[in-house]
Structures are given as C-alpha cells and as structure tokens.
Fold:
Amino acid sequence: MGRPRLNLRLALEAPERQEDGMGGHRVVWRQLGWLWAGMEAAAGRERLVQVGPQSLVTWRITLRAAPKGDPRRPEPDQRLRLGARLFHIEAVAECDPDGRWLTCFAREEDQA
Structure:
C-alpha cells in the first residue's frame, strides 16, 4: 500500500453518560481531538425506519496508526465528525503490513 492521501480534518468524539439527576442519563459526545484522514465510500443502501426512508452509507476511513490504548487511536462506538456529518465507527484495523495506517470501518446515516 502506498501513502494514503489524508486531506480531511475529522473530529474524533467519544460518548459519555451524563446523569440527569432523576435516576436516568443521557449520552453526550465529547471531542477528543482532530485527525487527518482519507475517506472512501464502501457501500450504500436505503432502509425504512419509523420516520421514513433512511440512507445508510458505509465508509473506509484511513488515518495514521496509533498503538492500542493511545487516545489518538479510534475505537468502535466512537465517531468521527466532518462538519454536520457523523461517521459511527464499527471496527478499526491496521491496513498495511508495517502498521503505519489504520482503517476505520464506519457507518453514516442520513434521513432522506
């Protein structure tokens, strides 16, 4: 694999539970930092949900590798943000034999 083109600046966000004071909670997203990435659409489909059709696109997002446990390494259940667009990370894997690059397999959902 050659050097990927990392031309998009994405925010890495993690979910946090925030107590509501009445025995419940809500999930808020906290920004962990910025990552430079390259993106490639992998597949897309439409599905019906309660409010109507929803576009579902999967993405391969490539970025510089970081060791496991490093806060710069994305994890499943975190998300990447590009403006108003959200990419929910489902899996992360090294994408080259030398371990210099990571691929995040992410899902973007958009109400049509």
